[in-house]
Write a structure and sequence with these properties.
Blueprint: H1 2-21, H2 32-54, H3 56-59, H4 75-78, H5 99-120, H6 128-148, H7 172-202
């Protein structure tokens, strides 16, 4: 219950910020109720991917502990807090933090990973049914987030992304290995996204 109040308060703030930045332009904003749901959904997605990676199925027998960051959305850059000058940090940006740019890149990420998981199902898999039933709920969560939490109707449809289906081939071991590495990368990206949502909600970028 305490958590719910926290999210709700944050989201009212997020909503206010969207209003202020949308100065007259017809930008769609999340209503307070949807917004509260979205913060919760992003947290659930993170927990879900954590669980998914703890499950032995996807990464079973894979020795490599490589992480693949597949999506080329600029979430890390555009969602980094505005930093004080000369902090010596690599992530330093010249432009101020843009909430809508950050959200746009988050949606681009989600679009990429949704397409990647979706296409994975069409290729040879070691334990097809089990892998599908493991991944499908997560795919569903991503789709809900894309539908309910996007500011733009066609967000995440970006032709500049390479086609994720290119990752998969005829070899079920390779496919699973690529999926395992990709989900590790997505896990890290989801941590970044949750951090960004917290930053946006805190209103720190308005100071
Ligand atoms: C992810 O969440 C969905 C929906 O709550 C659930 O059905 C599924 O079992 C979860 N997956 C994992 C790996 O926890
Ligand atoms: C997504 O939005 C629809 C209506 O816009 C709503 O019915 C549904 O409950 C929302 N889903 C979640 C998980 O918040
Ligand atoms: C997004 O891309 C998919 C596949 O490329 C396409 O089928 C769909 O119509 C596009 N959606 C929008 C809103 O552009
Ligand atoms: C994959 O399998 C299909 C059908 O079995 C075959 O036609 C195709 O050449 C194979 N592709 C590769 C890259 O091995």
């Amino acid at each position: 219950m305490a958590n719910f109040h926290f999210y709700f308060a944050s989201c009212v703030l997020l909503l206010t910020l969207s209003w202020r930045t949308s100065t007259g332009l017809p930008v769609r904003t999340l209503d307070a109720e949807n917004c509260a749901q979205c913060s919760v959904l992003f947290k659930s997605l993170l927990l879900n991917i954590t669980e998914l990676l703890n499950n032995d199925l996807l990464c079973y027998g894979i020795r490599s502990d490589k992480v693949a960051l597949r999506s080329n959305a600029e979430t890390v850059l555009t969602c980094a807090p505005a930093l004080t000058q000369n902090s010596g940090c690599i992530m330093q940006r010249n432009s101020p933090f843009s909430e809508s740019e950050c959200l746009r890149n988050i949606m681009k990420d989600l679009g990429y990973y949704a397409a990647a998981i979706d296409s994975y199902f069409n290729f040879p898999l070691r334990r097809s049914e089990e892998e599908k039933s493991l991944l499908k709920p997560t795919l569903g969560m991503i789709q809900t987030l894309r539908k309910n939490c996007s500011l733009m109707p066609d967000a995440g449809n970006d032709s500049s992304e390479e086609n994720p289906a290119q990752m998969w081939g005829n070899d079920s071991f390779n496919n699973r290995q690529e999926m395992c590495k990709m989900m590790r990368g997505f896990h890290i990206r989801t941590i970044t996204i949750n951090r960004a949502m917290g930053y946006i909600s805190s209103g720190d970028h308005m100071q």
